[in-house]
Specification:
This protein is an alpha+beta fold. It has two domains: 208 residues, Lambda Exonuclease, Chain A; 57 residues, no CATH class. It is 39% helix and 23% strand. It has a five-stranded mixed sheet with strand order 2-5-6-7-8. Strands 1-3-4 form a three-stranded antiparallel sheet. Strands 9-10-11 form a three-stranded antiparallel sheet, covered by helices on one side. The termini are far apart.
Amino acid sequence: MDYDVVLDTLDRETWLKARRLSIGSSDAPAVLGVSPFSSPLMVYAEKLGLREDREATEAMRWGTKLEPLIAEEFARETSRKVRLSGYLLRSKARPWQTATLDAEQESISHDGPGVLEIKATGFRAGDWQEGVPKHVYAQVQHQLDVTGYGWGSVAVLLFGCRMLWADVERDDGFIEKMREAEAEFWRRVEDQEPVAPDGSKASAEALRLLYPADTGEAIALPGELIGLDAEREALRAELKSSQARLDTIDATLKAAIGAASVGELANGVSYSYRLQQRKEYVSKTTEFRVLRRSAPKGGI
């Protein structure tokens, strides 16, 4: 077996502490830079214990409650044997790499057991029409690396009323690159060498956690940042120019619509210019007109 069983996740507090000492499957997408929810720098801050473990949200609690039902329906649709897991597993070869499986499965069309990742989400079905999303794919490949299994599946319940599922084969090329990225990330955690930030909100929050207050001193910045300063000023000027042009276009459209509510272009695009109400206080409202664009059916 490629892994050791560390503990049962029923003891949530102990499980959370154990997860902080490794890269888990839910961390993998962020470490690889493909997570829509987190960033490498946020995971770095979490591993240093700078962010308190958050209480499970209502959505998370319902997701946990629905897992057995989704697993049962997946087993029915696929005629596979499914066994709920819930254990924290640690790679023997890479102790800094762990995974908590939702379930394991067996199929007559695959050799050996496979992992089963279960999701309950409000994402649109369109997010899954081109296959398993990148961040979920990374999560499953991480689980396959920890367990040594050759395949897995994802079962997702959309909006509580539609289930989709897909098999995911082990991708050794992806896993090799993932291992390199995760190993380098964990080296930085151990050496307390922050990873580079990106432009996400998660990175902005992580920076506040890493540097909650200033020291009052002035320091010399690296010389290579001079180029970034020049690029930043150029982008600011470009944004200012673009915003000025956008404001002019909006004003032109508003003037063309005049006292009407909607104006239509020959290509099918329409603009509405109607009164709206916005609540500023408990009983006070302000009326103002808002310009909104509507594409023709089918979009452009």
